[in-house]
Amino acid sequence: MTTSIRGGQLARLLGRWHALPGRRRNPDYAALAAAVRGLLADGRLALGVRLPAERELAESLEVSRTTVSASYRALRESGHLTSRRGAGSWTTLPNGHRVATSGLWTPGDDVDMIDLGVAASAAPDELVAAARAAADDLPRYLGTAGYHPTGLPELRSAVADGYTARGVPTSAEQILITGGTQQALDLVLRLSVPAGAPVLVETPTYPNALAALAARRARISTHGLDTATGWDAEMLFGALRQTRPRLAYMIPEFHNPTGHLMTADLRERLVAAAHASGTELVVDESFVDLPLDLPLGDPAMPPPVAVFDRHSRVTSIGGMSKPYWGGLRIGWVRASAPLVQRLAAIRVGVDMASPVLEQIVAVHLLNQAGQILAARREQLRTRRDVLVAALREMLPEWRFTVPSGGASLWVELDGPISSALSRAAEDVGVRLAPGPRFGLDGTLERFLRLPFSLPPEDLTEAVRRIASVRHDLDHVTAPACRAPAVIA
Question: Nearest-CA neighbor of 122 among 291, 419, 313, 327?
Fold first, then answer.
């Protein structure tokens, strides 16, 4: 089903779109068309959305219908709008342009490259001791076959205790241990999303989630996040009502890549709206342990989305990659016990079970969670502030909202140059994750994700190198082919 947008909603998204006074070379219809193109380019207005009728939009914007008609005509001529008599007009991109949604490629091992494509940190100091302790514990498990499709009981209990401490009573039977958060998402999609099923995601969003959805041949629709304020409740609930997606994938805690934190009120309303539309919510909590300006467990942190679940509509996924170490492939699913058993049955056909030794290491790390996470948050807080200071000094025209948690900045550039800048930066030894990788159809070229998970000196040097190539972009003619990279 095609999503439609009302005149008042589009007017609110457009904001102050009028042509500037005294600039008659840019009439109102052209300014309106340019503003709609900007919404499409930034991902705030999805493709395939039916725009309001000309009369309705004219009333909402308090302009003449002639202005809206001319604007729609300009959008059709530029390829940003397709109209059919009796069916309306819906958003497109010129020549059906699309880009790949997957950011997952094989990495290189260039030690001189500053890699800002991955928003993950190096291992904590406690990992080596945890691995040695796990090796000492291993003999207790060697008398069994070693297959635990739902996970080791000790690890399932430790993860369940973490949810209970956050205010969501959880038993070990509600936890499935997986090979990282990505596998957790993949298993849920295998169970819940048949080919062609409608799915709703935020835009921007995590690139590898888009890759997993593409692998399931899902029919993806999007809800655009505002750069400064995050989720638009009216637009989000409107998308749920109109598309009635089979599943919605959301990142409410320190959203990747924007860093936004969803309010408690919106979480509660989201669960109710999902129930009303028959939608399963998949909540990615990869960054929930990384509040940087609030102590972990502070009352100011919103409760988990699952707190508001009364109808088994919420499936939570998480893991140890972001707060601990990406090389420790431990993730999990929190759901109802029957759903966990169904996921485990699917999981047996994928990889049987997670490695026992890694699960024991995870148990030892979770037993030291308070100490490890406190150090990680302090580390990321310092690095975030270093990156912010470097950007404000060397690239003051770039705009961003400083996140209160997570591991990256979502930066609005001074032009639609994200992909070109990424190519140029690689020539000076910096690997970037361009904005289009976090969306669909080639949008988000004015944005760039910049993680602050590297050491401070690397972050400062990376910004210096990026700034050094920014000016040359205006004179670049032919882009060169590039080696693949990982975006995580």
Answer: 327
**Radius of gyration (Cα) for the chain, nearest Å?**
23
pLDDT tens digit at each of 488 positions of the chain: 557 888 888 888 888 777 655 545 578 888 888 888 888 777 778 777 888 888 888 888 888 988 888 888 888 888 888 887 777 888 887 764 444 433 433 344 555 789 999 999 999 999 999 999 999 999 999 999 999 999 999 999 999 999 999 999 999 999 999 999 999 999 999 999 999 999 999 999 999 999 999 999 999 999 889 888 899 999 899 999 999 999 999 999 999 999 999 999 999 999 999 999 999 999 999 999 999 987 655 567 899 999 999 988 999 999 999 999 999 999 999 999 999 999 999 999 889 899 999 999 999 999 999 999 999 999 999 999 999 999 999 999 999 999 999 999 999 999 999 999 998 999 899 999 999 999 987 789 999 999 999 999 999 999 999 999 998 776 655 444 455 556 67
CB 42 within 8 Å of CB 24: no
Distance (Å, whole) CA 289 – CA 120: 13
Q: Is the dihedral of CA 437, 438, 441, 446 positive or negative?
A: negative
Main-chain dihedrals φ then ψ at residue 389, nearest 5 degrees: -65, -40
CA gap 351, 107 in Å, rounded:
23
CA distance 239 to 91: 15
The residue type of 270 is: L
